[in-house]
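Lay summary. Proteins are chains of building blocks that fold into shapes, and those shapes determine what they do. In this project we predict the shape from the chain. Here is one chain we studied, written as its sequence of building blocks.
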Amino acid sequence: MATVVDLFTYPVKGCAGTPLDSTHLTPAGLAHDRSFMVVSTDGVYRTQRRDPRLALVRPTISADGGRLTLASAERGSGDGGDGVHGGDGVRGGEDELHLDVTTSAPRRDVDLFGATFQGIDQGEEAAAWLSDFLGVPSRLVRVPPEHDRKTDGLTPGTSGYADSSAVHLLSRASLTHLHARMAERGAPPLAMDRFRPNIVIDSRPGERHGEDWAAAPHAEDRIRRMTIGAADLGYTKLAVRCAVTLVDQEAGARGGPEPLRTLAGYRRAAGGGVVFGAKFSVVRPGKLSVGDEVAVEEWGDAEA
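And here is the predicted shape, written in a compact code that computers can read:
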């Protein structure tokens, strides 16, 4: 048996996650997950791969999605203390920005990994705050209500501005195993937030025939259908890891070669890439809570 031990939503793609006790799982993932995205002035997505300071932006959003707050412990860098960055006239640098979310502004094209989607620009105040904090001209866009993205994988689905599928699930057993491998190299353990999961599960000694499948590392790779709380999820693919895992989420900067160095030694997928965790589509929306049991309805063969 396994239970949900952590839930995280990431309202703004690439920025810090918000821990939750309970939430609604929508067809596009946890409520408000990756419903906003920071882009360049020409609409190209920004992520921690190139802009690791995004990790220091801590967004929170109201339950109805109508109010977004961007906060950070830092002020904008390189501005001499006056809130002006460079020579582009952009002002910002406040510790917090409270924003009324608009869904009625004109749509604009945005680029996510070479694919074109639509975004609703959230205005000059958000652009100024982010531009100052990141040190590069930036805009904030929201997924339009009519957004109809199709995601691929074994179980097709939809998502907002996530890299691919709606939900990323990871077990504590997988992270514990990674830490053991890293310790053999003399590397210290890493926080779970390096991997930016939506759902974290852990084993609970089972009453049914003594089962404890979640104690095995990477058991999530073999789940094909499962029920959590009132929701059903279907497996899409393994989570291919990138340079974002190298970013220290507390420092907003790259912290060294781990975990990719160690993962590359034992977690290479047959189709290429280093993998850790699994992605899922939402088959049936419903409420999720920390403490919910994970009931696996169908198993398959691991792809790594």
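What the prediction tells us: Residues 113 and 199 are 24 Å apart (CA to CA).
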